[in-house]
Amino acid sequence: MALLPIYLYGSDVLKKKAPRMTVVTDDDITLIQDMLETMHEANGIGLAATQVGVLKQLLVVDISGADDDSAPNPIAIINPEIIEDDGESEMEEGCLSIPDIRETVTRPQLIKLRYHDASMKVKVLEADGLLARVIQHEMDHLNGVLFVDHLSAAKRTFLRNRLRKISKGDIDIDYEFVVEKKKHRR
Ligand code: NI
Description:
two-stranded parallel sheet; Peptide Deformylase; 9 strands; 186 residues; binds nickel (II) ion
């Protein structure tokens, strides 16, 4: 297994929509293991493939450190689709790609999710609370959306300087990271 560098805010890959997976190869199984190890090492509870620079509809979640023993942990989720949602909750979110920034985001409280597991079997999962929250946050990543995109324009303006520093890699964190921007032709 290997630790992977985490792509930070400002990286081009974080704005892209990841395509669905049709097969799970041995390399993908290794990727899942590496993502779990990378996430644990960085003290995260969720990680999307796009955050390690891989454009695939794949995310991992492990909230066993938080107090929710009803959730399956850890879990790899492929091609997730929300087929039902209910309620509304406000919760503070952070993101390994946006270190040291935490803000409150409103999302559905409950979700019913259809996805493929690592054997490409179709599964349905009903999630509530923190699990529902993490899954929705990570699913956003697979669609090129970050939690700061849910904030008001005023809030984003307030965070602008801190976000700019992150996008320059000017940040002190204890996991490996990369900022990779598209090279524009002049
Ligand atoms: Ni995130």
